[in-house]
Batch of 2 targets.
Target 1
Amino acid sequence: MQLYVIKSDITRLKVDAIVNAANSSLMGGGGVDGAIHRAAGPELLEECKSIILKIGTCPPGRAVITGGARLPARFVIHTVGPVWQGGYFREHELLADCYRASLELAEEKRLTSIAFPCISTGIYGFPKQEAVKVVSSLIHSWPWKRSSLQEVYFVVFDDENFELYKQAFPEAL
Ligand code: APR
């Protein structure tokens, strides 16, 4: 499995799945959620609505998968990160759950490539330095030999996350 740290707009990536930093309603929002829904078109929201009809809400730490609609990606994995509240309300655990649930969904579908944004570090306020430690320990302890995933992209959107991810993943291209 090859890791990549790239500075890009995640909506442009032609990978099996891009991960969306959604909210529990799955009805879209700002940040990367807004960008993904804008690029995907209304079909994405329709599919999210049908999922919400079934599950009611997507709690923090959970993930659901939809098609990619008009995106170059085949699928979108929508996961809901924790809102940072100081670090004493299981935020680290819930953030790790987001990455774990997204990887598990991708592997269930035997996907070979996935792209993550820096979940929760924007509007949800998770400190970037804290978040990258959570991601690093999860990724570096994942059983990659059993995984269908061959390429994992960390798509950063700012210089601070870029530096943090390059330090956390020196093996990444
Ligand atoms: N491509 C890649 N990364 C992006 C893009 C993009 N087009 N747009 C924003 N980002 C980055 C942000 O800079 C940040 O590093 O995605 C990361 C996650 O930030 P947010 O999108 O604000 O997500 P989050 O902090 O998890 O907050 C989620 O925001 O948009 C709403 O509906 C969403 O309520 C939810 C909340």
Target 2
Amino acid sequence: MVFSSLPIGIFDSGVGGLTVYRALHDRLPNEHFIYLGDTARVPYGTKSLGTVERYAIENSEFLVSRGIKMLVVACNTASALALPKIRERIGIDVVGVIGPGGRKAVEITKGEPHARIGVIATEATVSSNAYFEAIRRASASAEVFQAGCPLFVPLAEEGWTEEPETYSIAAKYLSKMKEFSPHALVLGCTHYPILRDVIQQTVGENVKLVDSGEATAEEVETLLNEKGLANPNANTGKRQLCDDLDHFYVTDAADRFGRVAERFLGTKPSKLEAIEVYGVDELKGKK
Ligand code: DGL
């Protein structure tokens, strides 16, 4: 098989990365994807650096063992904490979501003389300052304010996208953000695009929301073209989300993953398997 016709690997701590999968799928209809959701060990957003690095490396090595041409780290927490370690360990291109999300926020606030950029994310992503640094690399002057919104993760998974409780939690989490009055707000966690409407209404219609998954899909497209890695075999017929060209793996609770996937994407993976990612070295010979 030619290298460029291999699938793109995506991993997340669980189901949230499906928002990044959807963005990639929409933008790159000729590509195939292998998705790994580490549902046995989710959440990552409350865990320490060493633990997230270890999980991220195990997930990456599992995906590499399945045969992929590029790795997308869909999980913001893993992107924030573990990207350098992953890059050290695996020999293919690795794209995280933080750089693209940060760069997009700078790009869309370019017209503002004193751009203010807000970031909402998990506790671990916020305390890593990874978004702050990504924004700083793209703009020396943008002012950045970050807020952790941990309860958004279970609310999105429950499908509470319109409930009054979700609006009141959003109002509480985002009150300082509103005072900061950002021009752009980065949705720095896989689950937050599911709560996009609540977040938009809470911060105000004039704030531009940045979906890091969409920004990442744009950069993946550019990278595939630059490196000559775009799939040379166009998919015939209409590509559907979760059709059998894409393969989904979870480390636990496949049924729940399928149910939440349906909530997030309106459809369930047709190929979904529960696996273990520990000791993946043994798998390498069996590919
Ligand atoms: N996927 C995680 C992220 O984007 C959110 C869920 C978790 O805490 O693991 O940061």
